[in-house]
UniProtKB/TrEMBL annotation:
<comment type="subunit">
    <text>Interacts with EIF2AK2. Associates with microtubules; it is unsure whether such interaction is direct or indirect.</text>
</comment>
<dbReference type="GO" id="GO:0030154">
    <property type="term" value="P:cell differentiation"/>
</dbReference>
<feature type="region of interest" description="Disordered">
    <location>
        <begin position="349"/>
        <end position="371"/>
    </location>
</feature>
<dbReference type="GO" id="GO:0003723">
    <property type="term" value="F:RNA binding"/>
</dbReference>
<dbReference type="Pfam" id="PF00035">
    <property type="entry name" value="dsrm"/>
</dbReference>
<dbReference type="InterPro" id="IPR049402">
    <property type="entry name" value="DZF_dom_C"/>
</dbReference>
<dbReference type="InterPro" id="IPR043519">
    <property type="entry name" value="NT_sf"/>
</dbReference>
<dbReference type="GO" id="GO:0003677">
    <property type="term" value="F:DNA binding"/>
</dbReference>
<feature type="compositionally biased region" description="Basic and acidic residues">
    <location>
        <begin position="466"/>
        <end position="476"/>
    </location>
</feature>
<keyword id="KW-0217">Developmental protein</keyword>
<dbReference type="InterPro" id="IPR044472">
    <property type="entry name" value="STRBP_DSRM_1"/>
</dbReference>
<keyword id="KW-0238">DNA-binding</keyword>
<feature type="compositionally biased region" description="Low complexity">
    <location>
        <begin position="477"/>
        <end position="497"/>
    </location>
</feature>
<feature type="domain" description="DRBM">
    <location>
        <begin position="510"/>
        <end position="576"/>
    </location>
</feature>
<dbReference type="Pfam" id="PF20965">
    <property type="entry name" value="DZF_C"/>
</dbReference>
<keyword id="KW-0221">Differentiation</keyword>
<feature type="compositionally biased region" description="Basic and acidic residues">
    <location>
        <begin position="357"/>
        <end position="371"/>
    </location>
</feature>
Amino acid sequence: MRSIRSFANDDRHVMVKHSTIYPSPEELEAVQNMVSTVECALKHVSDWLDETNKGTKTESETEVKKDEAVDTYSKDQGGRTLCGVMRIGLVAKGLLIKDDMDLELVLMCKDKPTETLLNTVKDNLPIQIQKLTEEKYQVEQCVDEASIIIRNTKEPTLTLKVILTSPLIRDELEKKDGEKVVMKDPPDLLDRQKCLNALASLRHAKWFQARANGLKSCVIVLRILRDLCNRVPTWAPLKGWPLELICEKSIGTCNRPLGAGEALRRVMECLASGILLPGGPGLHDPCERDPTDALSYMTIQQKEDITHSAQHALRLSAFGQIYKVLEMDPLPSSKPFQKYSWSVTDKEGAGSSALKRPFEDGLGDDKDPNKKMKRNLRKILDSKAIDLMNALMRLNQIRPGLQYKLLSQSGPVHAPVFTMSVDVDGTTYEASGPSKKTAKLHVAVKVLQAMGYPTGFDADIECMSSDEKSDNEGKNETVSSNSSNNTGNSTTETSSTLEVRTQGPILTASGKNPVMELNEKRRGLKYELISETGGSHDKRFVMEVEVDGQKFRGAGPNKKVAKASAALAALEKLFSGPNAANNKKKKIIPQAKGVVNTAVSAAVQAVRGRGRGTLTRGAFVGATAAPGYIAPGLYTVSGNITRV
């Protein structure tokens, strides 16, 4: 399964590509003006036709008797001649892209549309347009397409097609007195198939608005794929209604909303799986009464070519090269790699020469590599502390219960700008950001600056007063390590207190986790939760551990820190200073001089068996072996281990 970060990278590329193919605001405004003007003009044409028909009907009624038979074709069925005008195609679905803006309208007629009606509408339409706007439009008829073509005369150049159709075209047979009677068609009837296609486009637009418009990223992916169909001839046969069905089915069957990059990959996966190939499930058309395959017009070769191209695009996307599919330049990484200035030492003690820092860059008095390691470790812990305790968390500790409000949201879909506000002591602070979370963080920084708190968290930890520490508003917690003797021993309190950074881990003097180091010395210890106090935003836990009959307690904002504090208290009490020699379980093998001393140290490191290499540096060769790691009955001679 791909990581979320790779999908985020795909999202960035898809949204940038979408911004380049999406029409400009000027183009969208021109489209809206042209479509609205033509719709209003057609409404006026319909009114004019009704007035003309009423005048003709009044004159004819004076000459025709009421009981005279009327031919079925010319019989007045009531209602307007032009029933209405509807948007279809890209305008209705919102799929317009640059250099591909085909505008279409359907003019619904009461009767079957004829060439005479087409000429009448074409002649009166320019007159009605001139009454509505000063812009010039060219109007011409296209009998073969059963439509009227309208073009504007200024940039951007747009073409609008108005197709005439009627519901009677689809319903050829009507019932009358229980019998089926075939209606008589007018002699100049327009192309039946063009009218049927217009009715199908109207059903497609209604289906798309009901099923696909509500799916997240569906419209964006469709615009991207329509651009792909225009650029790559292999994909051209899939353009239109089949592509919309595939995208809706691919994205709509997922159980969660998808981002633009992941939604595009899911569509490619469906096509690459072979659903277009012969023997596959096909593509059911939900807008037809009879079972219909929406891909029936495609040849086998076209289906195979599209499947092969989808598989290739899926491979490129899997290897982080989606920009090749979109034909765009790769975007720079949003999170550049951070290079650290400190060196890394491997387990064998050999440093990595490529990452080592020049010797003259370090301090003159820090020649001990252990001191450098501790100093670098402290820098890492400080940087983590800044990340984990941000301004929003600190403000919540100082003033819990603040209510953040969303004031506004602006900007395009792929680059929104949120404005958040918060009211503190009657003063309202506002800030903006690319997300609500970032905007809230910016607001918190403003509030902290206004209240006089520095924004550098390291400086906050250094400069906090004792009053702030007692009120739990800072980032340091003072943990007093109390040790009590069990069953007859008097309670003993440690004289030193441990200041624990709540943001970073607690470490011993040797740089280890206190719980792990104590477990190495005393196995099977149990930690018990003594108390849990504080609210949801300021918890405090107290843990207790019993070691050699003595109990040690530690406190912290969570159980992990409290356990580490208790373990650290036990280590400092029992295994540091003069108490270290009295609490060792096993006898220490006397240290010899010369070669024997080195051999014993090497054997101790080998028997420990915890994956650590034998250290040969002078500072560790003569060190006392840790208790509890040399099994009884073993002795060493010249570095070899022999069982007695």
